[in-house]
Amino acid sequence: MRVEAEFVTSAADAPGFPRDGTPELALVGRSNVGKSTLVNALTGTKLARTSAAPGKTRLVNVFRVRHALPKPFCLVDLPGFGYARGGSASAEAFEQLTAAYFESRAAAGSAPGLPSTAGSLLLVDARHPGLEKDLAAFDWLAALGSPAAVVATKIDKLTRAERTRAERTLDTAFNGPVLPVSAATDEGLKDLWTLIARLLSNHHPPRLTPRPR
């Protein structure tokens, strides 16, 4: 199925976030986990800028996508957490921007024009399962209670034996199934589109199960 995609905006604060009511799917993850690369793989374009240097994305980047779904939706590439060029102050600013995004979307029921749906994909690096920052982000998203799922990127970087161990560790760490994908080989992208459709659906979309305390 052909995918049509276009850049919408880059926002540095809440007033710059889109307000046209288009459903959104937020990509959350550490810097250099491959969010922008995954956007490009899903859309078959080079809309999202990628960089080998972590912490370079300082804005919320929004892309409108048309696929085999009932309505268009937006992929929202959020700033990566855990590292920022400029030190801890920059890292804190990035995380404040991400929090501002989710806070604005939580107000959708009372603010006309805000998106009616806000699902999330937590991206984690398959080579480094169960990192503290990833687990903290998982707990935060699980507490929100909105549709969300976990996706493991760069699965192609692992040998068969490493992959088996990583997938077992990921499923345990995140208290449920984690979808492995590769933007380099397109592995898992078909299943990811199915997952995206579920996240944006009103009929029993997946949600994160909080980890035992």
CATH superfamily: P-loop containing nucleotide triphosphate hydrolases
Helix and strand sequence? EEHEEHEHEHEH
Can you give the helix content as a percent range?
25-40%
Report the CATH C-level class: Alpha Beta
Major β-sheet, in short?
7 strands, mixed
Number of spatially distinct domains: 1
Tell me which CATH architecture applies here: 3-Layer(aba) Sandwich
Q: What is the count of β-strands?
A: 7
Report the mean per-residue pLDDT as an integer: 86
The CATH topology is given as: Rossmann fold
Report, as a whole number of angstroms, the end-to-end distance. 43 Å
Strand-pairing-aware structural class: alpha/beta
Give the number of helices: 5
Strand content: 15-25%
- Uncertain residue segments: 83-91
Main-sheet strand order equals 1-3-4-2-5-6-7
The coarse silhouette is: globular
**Cα gyration radius (Å):** 16 Å
Protein model, in words:
- This protein has 213 residues and is an alpha/beta fold.
- The protein has one domain (4-199): 3-Layer(aba) Sandwich (Rossmann fold), CATH 3.40.50.300.
- Helices cover 31% and strands 20% of the residues.
- It contains 5 helices and 7 strands; from the N terminus they run ββαββαβαβαβα.
- Strands 1-3-4-2-5-6-7 form a 7-stranded mixed β-sheet, with helices on both faces.
- The longest helix is centred in the middle third of the chain and has 19 residues, at 88-106.
- It is globular, with a radius of gyration of 16 Å.
- The termini are far apart.
- The model is unreliable at 83-91 (pLDDT under 50).
